[in-house]
Design goal:
130 residues, 42% strand, alpha/beta, Signal recognition particle alu RNA binding heterodimer, srp9/1, four-stranded mixed beta sheet, 2 helices, 8 strands
Length: 130
């Protein structure tokens, strides 16, 4: 079956980002993780390819050895729906630390509690209370 998998390209911080996501989402799971070989001096220890899962959604993850003229953009974000206030508030606090608030965690006419943020690695998240 054909499947669409969001693909997150980091530039050396993928492992740190995954540790942050593990702390934010109780059902975070690493499905596959391949590191660059030890003899690759520049990329040693970085993620060559990873496949993770958050709330049933798979995401591919890499550390790119190439420098690009682009990075993550909020025009594409990951929306996560939470069942209770405690977990959304905890995830918000962790993701926004050293990140950027696009819309603070608050009540909006379209959601009881909602936030839109960029995490410290530039990945854009929309958090919503179910």
């Amino acid at each position: 079956m054909t499947q669409v998998t969001p693909f997150l390209m980091f530039t050396g911080q993928a492992s740190q980002a995954l540790e942050l996501y593990r702390s934010c989402f109780s059902d975070f799971n690493i499905i596959q993780l391949e590191k660059y070989p030890e003899d690759d001096v520049e990329m040693k220890g970085k993620i060559h390819y990873g496949l993770i899962e958050i709330h049933g959604q798979q995401l591919a993850v890499i550390d790119s050895p190439a420098v690009h003229a682009f990075d993550f953009t909020p025009s594409l974000s990951l929306m996560v729906e939470f069942e209770d206030r405690k977990t959304i508030e905890s995830a918000y606090q962790k993701l926004v630390k050293r990140g950027e608030i696009l819309m603070p965690l608050d009540h909006y006419e379209f959601a009881r509690q909602y936030a839109w943020i960029n995490d410290p690695y530039g990945v854009s998240w929309q958090l919503k209370l179910a």
